[in-house]
Amino acid sequence: MNRVKEILEQVKAGVLSVERAQELLDMGRYEEMGYAKLDTSRRERTGFAEVVFCSGKSDEHLKAIYERLYQKEGEVFGTRASREQYELIRRIFAQASYDPVSRILKIQDRNKKLTGNVAVCTAGTADIPVAEEAAQTAEFFGTYAERIYDIGVSGIHRLLNRMDVIQKANCVVAVAGMEGALASVIGGLVSRPVIAVPTSVGYGANFHGLSALLTMINSCANGIAVVNIDNGYGAGYLAAQMNRLAAEGREG
User: What is the pLDDT of residue 252?
Assistant: First the structure.
């Protein structure tokens, strides 16, 4: 309340415009639920609504959060959900869908228009769960995702055979475990940004994805950004932002 009063006093004093005051008030909106504070102004601030991290949430909390977000946004996107959580949400929202590979639990418009293009690539098939989390995140936020799986450097001809498709994308998501070399190879072959996603796929010395993470961070290729281990959601979100910027640039 003190912040609201301060903003109103600044408007009264003529040092703050009504339009700017409205922006500041909108940025501070959230819905208090006791155990959670739903960021109801996130779409206005960032262009993307709040996403639910489902793992670890109680049934009661998860149901209430999905209900409130759906009421506000008309759709809900949740990551790291279990099948049991899906069954729980489906009893309330028959249109809810669940992908056991990516563990995404969502309620969305099935006719949503997708624009632009990002390429989501994996080194191997074991990396697909993380890649699907990235691809489906980008799609939920309105971006077309081209899936190009199993093109790791141990059979680099597979990658080279798909370069025509990859080079046309507005950005590339490179998902790899083991030694994590895929991002560096792609980074040296494309003119677009590469989002590298290390996965926990690998034998003991992979250290649950740490070796792939270090390889990607230390890449000598230019234009590579690295997200956390197994963070397909973070990569998909960033890819959607980049794709949106590319689309806005063309329109401008």
Answer: 53
pLDDT tens string 210-247 = 999 999 999 999 999 999 999 999 999 999 999 998 87
The DSSP 8-state label assigned to residue 110 in this structure reads T
Give exposure, 79-96, as e/b (b: 16+ Cβ within 10 Å): bbbeeebbebbeeebeeb
Do residues 138 and 118 lie in contact, with contact meaning Cβ atoms separated by under 8 Å?
yes
pTM, two decimal places: 0.86
| pLDDT confidence band for 1 (50 / 70 / 90) | very low
Instruction: Determine how many CB atoms are found less than 10 A away from the CB of residue 147.
Output: 14
Q: Report how far residue 179's alpha carbon sits from residue 16's, in angstroms, rounded to the nearest whole number.
A: 54
Pairing of strands 97-99, 104-107: antiparallel
Pairing of strands 171-176, 194-198: parallel
**CB of 138 within 8 A of CB of 162?**
no
How many CB atoms lie under 10 A from the CB of residue 153? Answer: 17
E strand or H helix at 81, and its extent?
none
Contact yes or no for 40/23 (Cβ under 8 A): no
The kind and range of the H/E element at 196 are strand 194-198
